[in-house]
Design a protein that fits this description.
Blueprint: H1 2-7, E1 15-19, E2 24-27, E3 44-46, E4 53-56, E5 60-66, H2 76-92, E6 99-100, E7 107-109, E8 112-122, E9 125-133, H3 166-180, E10 197-198
Parallel strand pairs: 2-3
Antiparallel strand pairs: 1-5, 1-10, 2-4, 5-9, 6-7, 7-8, 8-9
């Protein structure tokens, strides 16, 4: 992401990478050590994004949005809103009532958080993105204060939707997000192998 962002030129196609990580805790630039309660055997990796500590693992959709936000006539606040709104729209299509919060980035179902956000902007271009809990082991979240909030309860799509299909969720989210910027999604041949998608 860093290399792509720093080396791209004004004509470079925006990209969105959709993937799932092996178990890992990532600590944002302003991350405080006290929010790592007992990571155990899961590695902790520093990340050059905003936000505190979060967990990534199998069954979680991670979307990295590598966008020229100046070219899109956007800014970081509009990008955050587009990310949040795309998840709210996706969940709404399943009849799940979700919402963003003005005081804490991300998407929530009731009091429980289903999607975390963390971004970095360099030279008017974004990277990092969101992590949507789809159908995963939520236990590792109990080893941290998720996003720096003590006692924050995490939830996942599978708690509200029977047997969500990750491949379908990926395409639905991509459509929701791209629609907010009038982007056309073009999936390269290797996207099915987890390499990502261009937009």
């Amino acid at each position: 992401m860093q290399d792509f962002t720093l080396n791209r030129d004004d004509q470079a196609t925006d990209e969105i990478w959709l993937l799932e990580h092996d178990p890992v805790f990532t600590q944002g630039q302003a991350g405080k050590a006290e929010h790592l309660l007992s990571p155990g055997d899961i590695p902790v990796v520093p990340a050059d994004r905003g936000g505190q500590v979060t967990y990534h693992g199998p069954g979680q959709l991670v979307a990295y949005v590598l966008l020229d936000i100046r070219r899109l006539k956007s800014d970081v606040r509009k990008l955050v809103s587009a990310l949040e709104d795309s998840v709210v729209g996706l969940l709404g299509s399943y009849g799940v009532d979700a919402a963003a919060r003005a005081d804490a980035p991300g998407v929530y179902i009731g009091e429980s958080k289903v999607c975390s956000l963390g971004l970095r902007i360099k030279r008017g271009r974004s990277y990092h993105g969101l992590a949507l809990n789809v159908d995963m082991d939520l236990e590792p979240f109990s080893r941290i204060n998720p996003c720096g909030y003590q006692g924050l309860e995490m939830t996942q799509v599978a708690d509200w939707v029977k047997a969500p299909d990750m491949a379908v969720i990926k395409q639905q989210w991509l459509s929701e997000f791209c629609g907010r910027y009038n982007l056309q999604s073009v999936t390269p041949n290797d996207a099915e192998a987890g390499q990502g998608a261009s937009a």
